[in-house]
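S., here's the first fold you wanted:
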Amino acid sequence: MSSPTRPSAGVTPEQLATLSHEFRTPLNGVLGMARLLEGTRLTAEQRSYVTALRESGDHLLSLVNDVLDFARLGATAIDLTLAPVDIEGLLRQVAELMSPRAHEKGVEIAWAVSPGLPTILADEGRLRQVLLNYAGNAIKFTTVGGVLLTAAVTGEGRVRFSVADTGPGVAPQARAKIFEAFVQTDASHSTQLGGAGLGLAIVTRLARAMSGEVGVGGEVGQGADFWFEAPFETVPTPRRDLPLAGCVVAVASPNPIVRVATARQIEAAGGRAIVAADTAAALAAAPPAAVLLIDAALAGPRGALRPPADRRAVVLLTPEQRGRIDRLKSAGFSGYLIKPLRAASIVAQVLQAGAQTAATPIAERHAEDDRVAPASAPGVRVLLAEDNPINALLARTLLEREGCKVDRVAGGDQAVAALSSNSYDLILMDLRMPGLNGVDATRELRAQGITAPIVALTADAFDEDRRACLAAGMDDFLVKPLTHAALRDVLTRWTGPATRPAARPAGWTKAATRAKVAG
């Protein structure tokens, strides 16, 4: 399915792909090494220099992404690949992708959906791009509070996606022109916050391709509410259970975004939510049987936080606060939840806290959240095919921090040769390598019967590149600059417990043979 956008006679898609690769490959090295350096022992002065380096690199990457995306959308017809999309899962993914940037600024990002939201037929990649542009813009302009992603049915076959923030808002007279290319509503924004004014123009083009509309609401001084609405076909969706029916959950957080999002998720699961800005107010409003969700942001100046006596309580943490989990367990919390909160995790923790007795061993009370696990892939064997030595060093370092055992090759021919004599649990394949490129190497491996997961690791960031990789037989896609969070997510998806033989889709090799030739 294509939009009526006509191709431009200027820059070709192939030229844009080359530009994307040439820009993003060195940026991957700069940003990756800056993040690695931030994790080492530094003086305060050195840390300020590295932070400035990383922030400047992030700004440059944002500009590169916007310019290339804007040019790409003007150079070719916008093809839409329709498939069933779980809206709740999409909002969760976007919130978790943007959470490191939000937490670096000291703000929160969260999501919530209305009950009974259908599964829709849509181009998930394009929809994700709309939400990422909106969320990135919201985080950039928000300094206190946070960002809330929501979705709701607005009419027959229509769904509205909304990204609301607690930033400065948009003046009514600027709301129409803000979606035009190269427009800044405040001239100081371009120098203070960076940006070329292309992100919302990209959203507008994508919305038109989906027969949708965009707009912005909110109140000046109170925050902006950017929305995208379009008609979507739906697919039959099983009726969801209400696992928290009859449960009362009190949420104590100083952040209004956390309070609103958590309450909506509790209510969508059938529970009754009580919200308060501090623990004392939550206790005063909640019945004795209520489970308390207490934000770690309420901790004292030395980080001390204890649950109220004789009350069942779960603590809310950011991924960066993983080191406090054991101490908080010892203080009496029955479990923890990682922000941005996942609906399934809220349900599990509330039910476990409600059923908990003092004799229940802590280890049995809840499963570890993959975002704070000390190593997501201990002992996993990874073949890394990457010709750039700096990017190879970055990928190897991040993989080894996750417990992986890594072999590196510098070309597609070497990857094929390595897999003829060794077995691997996962293959990370760069696309542009000397000799046999990553796509052709993947085709060769699949032709030989090798069925281990192959993940593209590439600077080619366009949606067409993703589809080409999947068509060649790859299973997933990682875009440079490589981040620790994105890599951990891929490792969990393709080498975690869910990929064990009993849960593995038909066609996968057994654990014993892994990446060996089938048969």
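And the second, which I think is the more interesting of the pair:
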Amino acid sequence: MQFLYGKPIWLVPTLILWRMVRILIPAWVGMNLMIAEICSAYVMKDHRRLESVDEISYEETLDYVENPGMGFYSPVYVHFQENGNVVPEISDPLIHLRMDLAEFSGAYHHSLDMEISEEALKCFEETLEMLEKDQRCAILRFSYDPWFSGENTYEPSMEMILRHQEQLGEVISRHGEAVVSVECGIFGKWGEMHGSKACTQENFNRVIDKWLEVLPESIPISVRTPNQYAEWCGIGLNELAAQVTTPGQKEYRVGIYDDGYMASESDLGTYVNRDQELTWLSNQAKHTLFGGEAGVTRDNMDEIGLTASYLEKEAFLTHLTYLNGAWNQQTMDALKQETYEGSDPRYRGRSGYEYVRNHFGYRFVVRDVRMTKKVPQGWNLILEADVENVGFANLVKPKEVSLLIVGDGVKYHYPFMEWVENSDPTKWDSRTITSFCVSAFLPQNAPLGEYKVYLAIATPSVLDEEKKPIYAVRLANAGKVWNDGLKANFLGSFQVTDRPKKLEWTPENGYVLK
């Protein structure tokens, strides 16, 4: 008799088959049990009653809610040198970081152009690192106007300008969360793209393209006027109102900054045809950052001006996100003295300044929450919510949305998956109510008892159970919804119960746990 592996050769195929059966049958049974459990949970989703949550207020607070990347900014000036640079002191949540690079231009020293020194780049990087550590944000602008004095500009050759952009882009890309926008700048007095021989559309186009090349897609850029944008796009200004850009197009990432805001009927030359160009901005500024610096409103401007009564109309079109809070003082004082008499009855009698400040950028208010109030171990919590964006603008910086479920000594984290409808908060449009529904499966061994549910809207890649979210977004609901320890917003609570013994169908109530 012949043997193989110590067994009669005629028996080997039988033994191999038997071992395969022993492996496959339990795996098949286990998979079917898992599928059955998942399917039964989804059946429950269709039939379990969602109950309204009454643990939070659905009214908007009238207090200012500080959130990343929007509001009145403070300007911070840096004159970079080859050596001896010092990281500036920063105390405000949003700054306009104005950095001049004149020291590296041969025109300034009557010598050769230079690359930005390693020491200067190190100072720039340390500045962004400090912003990240303190969870502050910056709008960036570079120029060759020494100390941003507005007297003279000293642009180097275009080749060196492009090289400077490459050097700066490398640093910015490592600290993109701290940077909410880069104003194209570079040319002209104050980096406002006027007042210099170098301010040609050809030069503008090359600098715009280079910023788009060296910066992460999460950072939008902006030019000074819609006409500069249209020239770069290769379209006529009269065609701009009909343009709607989409993700993936390079034009999608480019907006404008307005440093003549409400200072004349054209905003000091910002607009050629204000109505047409505002129509364009009403779409384009949904995904680019719009803001600037106010001038003195003149007497012959009809209704146009930096007042709450006018901004209530135009700022929702342009999606105003930021303004210089330190300029112009005369205009800021007038806004503070204005009494709001607009269409929102809750703000009537308050100052125009309060109304504008509270509506900068995005401002999310949860209007209703519905959830399953009792969830068996291993089953899914179902939560529906309606969120209204009452701010002038959309959230532009990408954020991850997730649920944090917190019980006695345990915390579970559930990021919204791509297939969850309306899971992207940058699409929660201004003046719109957005609804989402999520399902979160609890562990089989989740401890019994009460759990609290929190909504986290924060920076991707760091939002997990090991690290607290950074650059997190607070809801603007009245009352206490913000949990500073979790960096998340309270939505409601539910009970985790024992697993059911069986599931029975009833015509009246659908599936019922027994």
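Why I say that: The radius of gyration is 29 Å. The chain is about 25% helix and 25% strand.

Talk tomorrow,
H.
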